[in-house]
Amino acid sequence: MAKDGTNRGGARMGAGAKKKPLADKIAEGNPGKRALTVIDFDSHAADLEGQPMPKPSRLLSAKQKDGKKLQAAEIYKNTWEWLHERGCSSLVSPQLLERYAMSCARWIQCEEAVTEFGFLAKHPTTGNAIQSPYVAMGQNYMSQTNRLWMEIYQIVKENCASEYTGSNPQDDVMERLLRARRGDA
Q1: Which of 66, 79, 82, 109 is deepest in the core (most CB within 10 A)?
Q2: What does each C-alpha distance from 183 to 94, 108, 133, 175 come to in angstroms?
Q3: Which of 173, 172, 168, 153 has its CA nearest to residue 21?
Q4: What is the rounded average pLDDT of the residues 5-33?
């Protein structure tokens, strides 16, 4: 117990036994002998009949203070389509997708602000140069975005029969960041 009387222990996100990817279970001959649900990237999963994309909340496309439209709805749509093409759209909750999309959009906003205003800011009382708050916020959003992406990708990895290689929505986010830096947003 810490000095302030609170517990600091307990379960941590990502701690504990990891699920084996389906592809590994198949390669090992299904050691648990349970029925495996197989989603194959090589098949045309996009042709399978599925549910329509859940409508993203209005918050994801809200007009921002600077007058620009938030890009989260577009990120949500691209990510859902990527999951749907792999037959995994029903396995990832819309709330997780919304959190991922919002986090990506906020990360992009922070990076745009750093590009526009620079890495330094003026301290409010002393007037000395300090790190721009957008730098720290951007780092926090980047970390959150990566954590959420790994959560989504883990679901895909655990439920697909073959190893996935190729582009993914996370690559698209990086492209958006680069375009924002160049001013092509």
Answers
A1: 79
A2: 31, 12, 21, 12
A3: 153
A4: 68
AA identity, residue 169:
P
Print burial letters for 53-90: b (CB count within 10 Å at least 16), e (below 16).
Answer: eeebbeebbeeeeeeeebbbbbbbbbbbebbbebbbbe
Q: Please calculate the CA angle 165-166-171 and round it to the nearest 5 degrees.
A: 125
Whole-number pLDDT of residue 148: 96
Measure the N-to-C terminal CA separation of the chain; round to a whole number of Å. 49
- Identify the H or E element spanning 151: helix 133-158
The strand ranges marked E within 40-140 are 120-122, 129-131
The secondary structure of 86-109 as a DSSP string is TT-TTTS-HHHHHHHHHHHHHHHH
- As a residue count, the chain comes to 185
- For 149-174, b/e burial (b = at least 16 CB within 10 A) is beebbebbbbbbbeeeeeebbbebbe
pLDDT of residue 46: 46
Single pTM value for the model: 0.67
